[in-house]
């Protein structure tokens, strides 16, 4: 993790450098503010962190880099909020009528963010935990999307349910995937959805229908997770997408992809605050083992490395 987050490290190192390079005056705080904003921490979290750091700096010995480092670590950790529940629902459950059903995860997000890749990697993580998984290719808009998902499915050794024709109803694929998950006694069904950011109403209708139909197939049990996949390198644009998705569907967690390729680690804090849901997993590369549960302590340590 630390190696992969090497570029994000420039945030913590930058701050540490500024705070330990001699007198801390107003121009130092200006530079700190700029560093935080450049790392996509967002204005609110930036103000809060600066205020808390100012307060801490007054009561510690600023000649001692170790104390400054500790203060910074504590404040960054508080912003990332280690108390949030980041576990994924991944077990069989009982529907209202007593039927045993899988946990269903809907994956939502704009095309190109790494959604399909994330479905494959997530299946890999779950299979490694001995869970049985079925994939549903409900992104029926792009023909290549189902092929790409099925390729991931065979790489990680799980079945992919897809439509036999292009342009099929995504909700019917979701229904079939859940039905197969129930028949196979799977623990988890992961459903890849289309990522067109057409108008908000179109998106709301499509995701709403996929969800309703999946819940019908689940004998009335709810969809356990709606995971929003977000590309960490897209900054404000990504934040905007996140807001749109959270307005049209109840997001339960965020998967932040491409965190290996950015110095903008502040987006973790920014998006958690904007949506009020935790970052649950992070993508750290293109390979099949490059998805990890998000660990606030490891993340902050990597920032300060
Ligand atoms: P989708 O359109 O959202 O389904 O996106 P894809 O899954 O096709 O991914 C788009 C590109 O991003 C592909 O080239 C992936 O290999 C790449 N990608 C996905 N996740 C990550 C990640 O965590 N890190 C890096 N560096 N690349 C990623």
From TrEMBL:
It is a peripheral membrane protein. It catalyses: GTP + H2O = GDP + phosphate + H(+). Keywords: Cell membrane, Cytoplasm, GTP-binding, Hydrolase, Membrane, Nucleotide-binding, Receptor, Transmembrane, Transmembrane helix. Its main location: membrane. GTP binds at residues 109-116, 192-196, 257-260. Belongs to the GTP-binding SRP family. FtsY subfamily. Residues 102-305 form the SRP54-type proteins GTP-binding domain. The keyword Ion transport does not apply. Part of the signal recognition particle protein translocation system, which is composed of SRP and FtsY. Its EC number is 3.6.5.4. This is Signal recognition particle receptor FtsY. Involved in targeting and insertion of nascent membrane proteins into the cytoplasmic membrane. Acts as a receptor for the complex formed by the signal recognition particle (SRP) and the ribosome-nascent chain (RNC). It is an enzyme of class 3 (hydrolase). Residues 1-80 form the Signal recognition particle SRP54 helical bundle domain. The keyword Nucleotide-binding applies. Residues 101-255 form the AAA+ ATPase domain. It comes from the Bacteria. It comes from Brachybacterium kimchii. It is found in: Cell membrane; Cytoplasm.
